[in-house]
Amino acid sequence: MAQNRAPGAGKIANGLTVGDTSIKKKPNCPKPLLADQHAIDAWHSNLGIMFDRQSFAAEDIPHLINYCNAISKIIKLEAQLTNIADFTDVSSSGSLKLHPHVTAHNLIVNQSIRLANQLGLSPMARARMLSGGKDDKSDEDDDFNEY
What is the structure's pLDDT at 86? Predict the structure, then answer.
């Protein structure tokens, strides 16, 4: 039997970086690909965070564009949902249902959360990234050491 672990299993190697440290200059803002000023502002603020943490890589650009556009959509939808009455709509049978804006808002929020996790912008993703795979257990407590 082979003594190999499945890819991605186990601890992250020490010194492994998440971003591309060879990138020294922030890429230009892709204004034509961003929805509006909210998305542009999100681009600058989140790119700054990723650069400060050295977690930016060129492969992140499409995800960051999608994340920034999702943030812009959330801001616009929340502006439309200012009154609790806006959260429901009457169906053809006369019963109450969620307004389509609420459904769209929920979908976009979930999308933004997934993208934030991929980019290391959520608290849990940041904790995993900053820990570098280190944990408080000693090596003798690792059940997989024997393999």
Answer: 79
Please write the tens of the pLDDT for every residue from 109-146. Answer: 999 999 999 999 998 888 887 676 555 555 556 666 65
pTM, full prediction: 0.73
Between strands 96-98 and 88-90, the pairing is antiparallel
Burial call 65-103: b when 16+ CB within 10 Å, e when fewer:
bbbbbbbbbbebbeeeeeeeeeeeeeeeeeeeeebebbe
What is the per-residue pLDDT across 66-104, written as a single tens digit (0 to 9) for each?
999 999 999 999 998 888 887 888 889 999 999 999 999
E strand residue ranges, the chain: 88-90, 96-98
**Please, are residues 88 and 96 in contact by the beta-carbon 8 Å criterion?**
yes
CB 112 within 8 A of CB 74: yes
Tokens of 32: 């034509």
